[in-house]
Amino acid sequence: MHLPAILQERLSDALSGLTDSPEQYASMIRGTTDPAFGDYQVNCAMPLAKQIDGKNPREIAGEIVDNLKVDDLCQSSDIAGPGFINLKIDDQFLADSLAKLLGDERCLVQPVNAPKNIVVDFSSPNVAKPMHVGHIRSTVIGDSLARILGFLGHNVTTDNHLGDWGTQFGMIIYGYKHFGDPDVVKKNPVPELALLYRKVNQLIDYRKAVASVEPSKQAIAETEILVKQTEAELAATEKPNKKKRKALANLKRRLSSSQDNLAAAQAKIAAVLADPETAKTADQHATIDKDVLAETVKLHEGDEENLTLWKEFLPFCKDEINRIYDRLHVSFDHTLGESFYHSMLADVVDELVDKGLAKKSDGAVCVFLDGYDAPMIIRKQDGAFLYATTDLATLKYREDTFNPDEVLYVVDSRQGEHFQKLFQVAKLIGHDKVHLEHVNFGTVLDENGRPMKTRSGTLIGLEGLLDDAVAGARSVVCDPERLAKMDPPMDQDEQNAIAEAVGIGAIKYADLAHHRTSDYRFSLTKMVSLDGNTSAYIQYSVARTQSILQKVGTDQSAIIDRVAQHSIQFTDPAERTLALMLLKFEEALVNVHNDYAPNQLVDYLFDTAKAYASFNEQCHVMNAETDAIQTTRLALVASTGNVLKKGLSLLGIASVPRM
Ligand code: ARG
Asked: Which residue windows are coiled coil (predicted)?
């Protein structure tokens, strides 16, 4: 049930005599936050008055209300202030709807009339590299979008566009050839390959650091001179010179960032040199960055040895990330990694060249686009294809295979320009019917507001993070004082299950609760708390509904029977508020689709859990005054449990029967 959509249709009919675009004005309907203004408010009379000569907004609002046929839905439609129309939903309608909600598995969410084919590209880590916290954000947002869009009735295809073909494989192949012990790798492949990756990465970083020292020093010296000059110029003029002062501030900023870079590079170098063994290795691998690239090129060109190693290593790398997916309860319809498209890349380049869309420039093949300084490079001078080439091939394949109406790329905001260019080129080639959307998201920050990293300076390993969250959850939900109150007592298995559900839920919920485009600070303490906008709070609310039903000794089907006998009647405003809230579930889900923003569902669940908490405070269920009153309240309790549980499951979060 989508109340605003139903009202909007009625409004549109009522507006048809007043304007040529009734739908547009009818869409100006909003939920109110203050019940004094009804449940929904429409403010279209004011802008309409500007279009219609000789009538003021109140008169127009009056005409709309006169034409409006909502007797079956609304108790009142009043005009307030300069011409707001306040609509209050009828109690009988609410009661009837609650009765329907109670037994409905879909929680009154109707499948869309025109289902779309939607491809969701998400998670997509670069295997062989440790997966990081940015990939978890993509995984969690993408998974919940796929669940929600699927539940709304769309045909969703999920695809994990694994980075399984890039330089990181060149790195492990190089590492294996130079430092690997085949027996050790065979015995313990996953940690051993990770070790090789880290070693090669460290050596490459070291070379980069070494190479950056001289340029950094030079930049510092040059900037220092400029700073001195500008300071002297400023001192020489008496007039305040805003522009110069700004320039000076910029120079000083540049200076300090060059100094930081130099210090970071020197620290890296010192760390390697501190260990004579590593220092010697670093010395022996002076051209490692080029050599790693060469290994990657050999792999791409079909070199037998490298291809064999790749085939041997890839399953291990996949096992590693699959462990994390299992833990997160995330799965994909397809996992078509970059390697899958390798044989299609040359054709993509040829097609663009043939159509006159791509040109050679300095030996590379490029697509020049309006509005960008740099072109999209689709083949490098040395013949290598790029990330963009693969994405073009992927799009073509998806068009041919899945016939999508929408393709969603759930990827870090930092790849914004890549996707803008990709979408432009896609249009040029003729993929112009499909809606392409970069569902971008911000960075996860640590408690100090910096991009989250571990002590060693690498992006935090995911598994450790999940373990920490589960441990944090355990300390909150299984603390001895809470456990002492559990009747029957909670055995170890149940405690483990709850800690896991709340801990993993906490990580997911925190990712989803913020609008995806904003950065957010990761705080383990806050995210496992039982108070506030957390998954634990919603899970706890679900558990409370279940415990009330148990104490009363009833269940859903018994409540349905009781409702048939007594019918539903509201005697307390908190009941009505909660009932209306429960009917807004579909609205929340449609809002998620409109902005590809699962936080709309999170906000809804939090508001519903709060409405449920006030209801619990105001209204006795067990000791309700009459049987009839208790029946209505039980219907609310059971439905709240159903809606919250369904909502959590659409976020990919488990509920527990008690906690
Ligand atoms: N593997 C990429 C990364 O980790 C993300 C891929 C996103 N999907 C895509 N079709 N480009 O940065």
From this structure: 241-268
